[in-house]
Amino acid sequence: MILINCPYCGEREQSEFTNGGEAHVVRPKDPDSLSDKEWGQYVFFRSNPKGIFYERWVHTHGCKKWFNAVRDTSTDTILKIYKLSDRRPEISEFQTTLKSPSGEPIVGSGNFAVKK
Ligand SMILES: [Zn+2]
Question: How far apart are the CA of 49 and the centre of ligand 1, in A?
Answer without folding.
Answer: 27
